[in-house]
Amino acid sequence: MLKKLFPTLSHLRSGVQILMLFVTVYGSVVVGHYAADKISNALPVLSCAYDMRSGGYCVLVPIQHQIHHRIGEAMVRAQQLTSQMVLPLLMTLLSFFVFFFIIGKAFCSWVCPLGTLQELIGRLGRRFGIHLRRLEGDDLGEAKRIRPVKWVLLLCLVFLLPLLAGLGVAPHSLGNPYCDICPSRVATTLLTGNTEQLALRRGGNISFALGAIANVLFGFTVVGALALRQPFCRICPMLAFNALFQRLSPLRLVKISRENCGKCRICSEACPMDIREISGEEGSKAFTEDCTLCGRCAEYCPQDGIIKMKWGPLSLFSSSRSYYRDKVRTELPDGSLKPIRFVRAVKSHD
Amino acid sequence: MPVTRGEEQRPDRQREWTRFPLLAAVPNRTGERGLAAVRPLGIAATEVAVIAADGPDARRRVLYPVRPEGALIEAATPKTGNYHWLQARAESAEEILVASSVWYFPNPGKAPTEMLLAPKSELEIIPVPLPREHSGYRESEKWQFLVRFHGRPLANQPLTLETEFGSRSTFLTDANGYATVLFPRDFRQAPAPGGGEAGHGPRRAGFVLATEKTAHGKRFLTAFNYTYSQDADRNRSLAWGMVFSLVGMMAAIPLLRRPSADKTREEGTDLA
Q1: What is the pLDDT of residue B77?
Q2: Nearest-CA distance from B94 to chain A in Å?
Q3: Contacts A211 to B, Cβ<8 Å
Q4: Chain A nearest C-alpha distance from B42 (Å)
Q5: Contact check, Cβ <8 Å, A196/B236
Q6: Range of B185's domain?
Q7: Predicted model pTM
Q8: I need a labelling partner for B129 at 20 to 30 A (CA). Which of A145, B178, B219, B251 fits?
Q9: Is residue B259 situated within a structural domain?
Q10: Which one, of A209, A219, A139, lies nearest residue B250 by Cα?
Q11: How many Cβ pairs within 8 Å bridge chains A and B?
Q12: Is the dihedral of CA A221, A222, A227, A229 positive or negative?
């Protein structure tokens, strides 16, 4: 039954993504109205707290909030590092980790609403024949050149500025700067029919500028995703945050070396984050900080048992030639879709 | 975090804008987020009951004496929930007056659903639901309130709304005791002297809902006060939002062009 519904790992992931898009954007219908009812306020995905229908909050929200209001303000009051300051932050990190432990960075590629939206837009682009662009040397430049951006955003917008705002060094309007520039805030609230987050705040230059950045990122992501896979994910501080803990989750991709491995590079081609190392390296080096555990590399590896998705000692999925053959009948590694067949093949009566 | 902290979301300050009883917030000078102080106005109450949604039994309902500086509500212990119900009461042979409000602590615990519906006085105004975290009552929005008398819904009961900006309107409950209250768009008027809100949240003002009933020769008057904020469109620009979104879209358009030196991924990766 499950096999019929989800014949490939990609189908299963798409199903999970759609379900999670509903849970993260409209989940209060299921989990309840109040903030206390939500699944968690420390989800490892961009599930927006400004969306009044959401089923849970992104972990970056309380991190900024606690650094701003608890740590920064408490330090100003010259208090010692007491449990009153640090405990809420530790509780947030612990709640986050309870979720993260289960599927690790796969939250990005299986659960995150913005990730799902970008992927759906990308499919639309492939369907309409928009040429795929890649972060590779011969197209838009190497993906690794853009990798530090997400770390800078995490450090500055999630940790540093909220702390400075709490200390009173920076204005309070910089108290949650990542939320202010997050395109998921705009996208997910629009999905609930609410245009408030699309509208820019007037009356303060900082708020206006941060909102403008969010909207530019939102617009760029919506159109850019037609040609470039997962454009925002590449600079997303949530990916950096998840990467901090990536070795602490049992879910991982594993690659073993084989003598002809690294020649076809189909795994890198299938990777929506354009990670070249998947084909060129082996072991943990093959899956860099950008890997979101989507599993496409394993699906498109044409050799048996080279790339595996494992949860601890359990092998959840393993590359195989037969699976690859079936897979490329409907979708090429770069995401291009084979034409939809509306007419069944006519059997020959010879 | 836009609205869930500081003074912005607290019940209203002392003002001469309503004849109904209020629980007015006293500014918290310490900045301690787990402390609150309220002062009953228009009601001769000697204590304020604070009802939590969660936590040990001893913390579920705590009475705080009213002092000259107000009723000082101590730091909420962990796991008592976010919203706490505040209630002051004055009783005489002729009447029973009740002033009620809610206070939001950034505190984990159960949602306030059960706490709100639990009977707390003879005549009750129950917000169903309260605004969620990061949200609030706002101009032009409709919110539902349940009116009960001795635990039973009151049909066709008038519920009067008064705001700090001088609006006054009356709503009738339906057959199930629910009144749908429309918050007036009245922030156009200049705020009262000393009014408005400091900080980076939206501007807020106080409102009070009140209902009155006479039974067995006794008058019951119950009020619920809290704050509402101005409509988001007053300090936001959708036009600018769309302009910058379009700028982002335009910036991405070069990506949609086929690169000149196409390195031909098209010829097939099907090595099968």
Answers
A1: 67
A2: 39
A3: 241, 244
A4: 31
A5: yes
A6: 22-234
A7: 0.81
A8: B219
A9: no
A10: A219
A11: 174
A12: positive
What CATH number is attached to the domain comprising B133? Answer: 2.60.40.1930
pLDDT band at B242 (very low <50, low <70, confident <90, very high): very high
- Is B164 part of any domain? yes
The position carrying tokens 């986050």 is A96
B195-219 as b/e: b if 16+ CB within 10 A: bebeebbbbbbbbbbbbbbeeeeee
> Which residue do the tokens 């335009």 mark?
B250
Task: Identify the pLDDT of residue A271.
Answer: 95
Give which of A26, A31, A34 to mutate to test B binding, by max B Cβ within 10 Å: A34
User: And the tokens for A3?
Assistant: 């096999």
Within a 10 A sphere around the Cβ of A283, how many other Cβ atoms?
10
Shortest CB distance from B272 goes to which of A132, A140, A328? A328
pLDDT exceeds cutoff 80 at A82? no
**Angstroms from B44 CA to nearest CA on chain A:** 33
Mean pLDDT of the A257-280 span: 88
Q: Give the residue extent of every domain in chain A.
A: 2-240, 250-328
Burial class (CB in 10 A: 0-12, 13-18, 19+), A203: exposed
Is the pLDDT confidence value at B227 over 70? Answer: yes
Q: Does residue B246 fall inside a structural domain?
A: no
What is the pLDDT, as a whole number, of residue B271?
44
User: Does A137 touch chain B if contact means CB atoms closer than 8 Å?
Assistant: no
Which of chain B's residues have a Cβ under 8 Å away from the Cβ of A333? 269
Number of domains in chain B: 1
